[in-house]
């Protein structure tokens, strides 16, 4: 997997990509979640460090890359990493929980309206998954729990909007 900036699209379907800095390049030590591209909120930046200890890349193509945030990460490194060390159990649990929160917000076939994905909604969903009822990562895959996490995220967004 690589992270790259699309430079140009050609009529024959070919694509020209940029990997002009360490912000882009080979991705390692993470997991990929694919959602509908319409759920990714268009933002100036696609690279986000979340307070839960994970970083995400939200691609406009619907690909969401979730990886552990390391001590030596800086804003220029993005998802590029040569670190091939074993990811700690606690980091794997954070990544797994965040992955399942992405799926909960995306809605899938659970029969509720999906929530747009950006750093704020991911943070709210993650906090909701551990706050009221500390769900296990596996519990987050149950349709009723997914719907509850999405609803709690929507409520948090509404409360934030009302305060502003």
Brief synopsis:
The protein is α+β, with helices and mostly antiparallel strands and 164 residues long. The chain has 3 helices and 8 strands.
Written description of the protein model:
The protein has 164 residues and is an alpha+beta fold. It has one domain. The chain has three helices and eight strands. α1 crosses α2, α1 crosses α3 and α2 packs across α3. The radius of gyration is 16 Å and the shape is globular. The N and C termini lie far apart (39 Å). The mean pLDDT is 87.
Topology (SSEs and partners):
Elements: E1 2-3, E2 5-9, E3 15-18, E4 25-26, E5 31-34, E6 47-49, E7 54-58, E8 63-68, H1 89-106, H2 119-130, H3 143-163
Helix pairs in contact: 1-2, 1-3, 2-3
Secondary-structure content class: alpha+beta
Which sheet architecture does the biggest sheet show?
A: 4 strands, antiparallel
Spatial strand order of the main sheet: 5-8-7-6
- Number of separate helices: 3
Helix content bin? 25-40%
Tell me the radius of gyration: 16 Å
Percentage of residues in strands:
15-25%
Flag low-confidence runs: none
| Total number of strands | 8
Amino- and carboxy-terminal Cα gap:
39 Å
Task: Report the mean per-residue pLDDT as an integer.
Answer: 87
Inertia-based shape? globular
| Helix-strand string | EEEEEEEEHHH
Number of domains: 1
Keywords:
single chain; 164 residues; alpha+beta; four-stranded antiparallel β-sheet; two-stranded antiparallel ribbon; 3 helices; 8 strands; globular
